[in-house]
Design a protein that fits this description.
By secondary structure, the protein is of the alpha/beta class. It is built from 7 helices and 5 strands; from the N terminus they run E-H-H-E-H-H-E-H-E-H-H-E. The protein has a single domain, classed as Rossmann fold. The longest helix is centred in the middle third of the chain and has 19 residues, at 56-74. The N and C termini lie far apart (36 Å).
Length: 143
């Protein structure tokens, strides 16, 4: 039985309405689960962050949380959704969060791979490869 579904979203996907959220909603409807929307704000190296305004990280996290709440409301899942915003490495922090909270499934979106993805790998690929629970990849088609 699936009780917790983690949907890691970049903020731009939250604003545009991600397919992963719709699929998670379908699973929740069938299983009676809870959705956790997660956004990980990528850490900036110290040599970059020292030149930026001190409240930039706080403002980025607040904006991300607001965008995620708006996305949850737009998809009609705000009553069954928790919103979490963290700072760190998107793949590693998604996996750590999934392990720490005992999620039963991760529903993650992925774009069509570009050249850099073949060399470095995508966040979705790393999450799927190392997840200790079921993972569903929703392909976002561009074009």
């Amino acid at each position: 039985m699936i009780k917790k579904i983690l949907v890691p979203l970049p903020v731009e996907s939250a604003k545009n309405g991600a397919s992963a959220t719709a699929i998670a909603k379908d699973i929740v409807t069938a299983q009676g689960a809870k959705i956790i929307l997660l956004h990980v704000v990528e850490e900036m190296p110290p040599y970059v962050s020292v030149h930026l305004p001190a409240d930039l990280r706080k403002n980025a996290a607040t904006a991300a949380r607001d965008d995620m709440r708006a996305a949850a409301k737009a998809h009609g899942i705000d009553d069954i959704t928790d919103i979490v915003v963290r700072e760190g490495n998107p793949a590693a922090d998604t996996l750590d969060f999934a392990n720490d909270t005992g999620v039963d499934m991760i529903v993650i979106s992925s774009h069509d791979p570009g050249f850099a993805d073949y060399l470095l790998g995508s966040v979705a690929a790393r999450v799927v490869r190392h997840a200790h629970c079921s993972a569903l990849v929703v392909r976002l088609r561009t074009g």
